[in-house]
Design brief:
The protein is mainly alpha-helical. It is built from eight helices and no strands. It is globular, with a radius of gyration of 14 Å.
Length: 133
């Protein structure tokens, strides 16, 4: 499944906008199962590539929730050593300022997790402008 994660995430995220509530719920569950069963770094990359800059609120909310769960699962100290750490820190800063309250909540929780670790705090300072912090 790891090799197809990027394509699968794009297709499922497209199902989230302009769909009935039961389809949105099924898509969220499917993405959650996918995130649990693939390599965390691959899932994080696919979510960062496909959903953070989406125009649709439901997509950003779902992506923010899944990124938070990945960050909690992996831990800030483990992520700080990867090449995707700055992208995730930047995405957390962006999502923490989102117009939708649920998305903003998940983004703020990610920022809090980063701020609780010295490496994470340095990542945020490098990737998020000081006025946004």
């Amino acid at each position: 499944m790891d090799s197809e994660v990027d394509e699968v995430v794009q297709v499922i995220l497209r199902m989230l906008h302009n769909s009935p509530e039961f389809v949105e719920k099924a898509a969220n569950q499917t993405l959650g199962i996918m995130v649990e069963n693939v390599t965390p770094v691959r899932a994080m990359t696919a979510l960062l590539d496909s959903g953070v800059k989406s125009r649709h609120i439901q997509v950003r909310k779902c992506v923010a929730e899944l990124l938070l769960s990945l960050l909690e699962k992996i831990g800030v100290t483990e992520i700080a050593g990867t090449a995707r750490a700055e992208r995730l820190a930047h995405a957390a800063g962006t999502l923490a300022q989102d117009c939708h309250k649920d998305t903003r909540h998940y983004g703020q929780e990610m920022v809090k997790l980063f701020l609780n670790h010295q490496e994470g705090k340095m990542l945020l300072e490098r990737s998020v402008p000081a006025r946004d912090l």
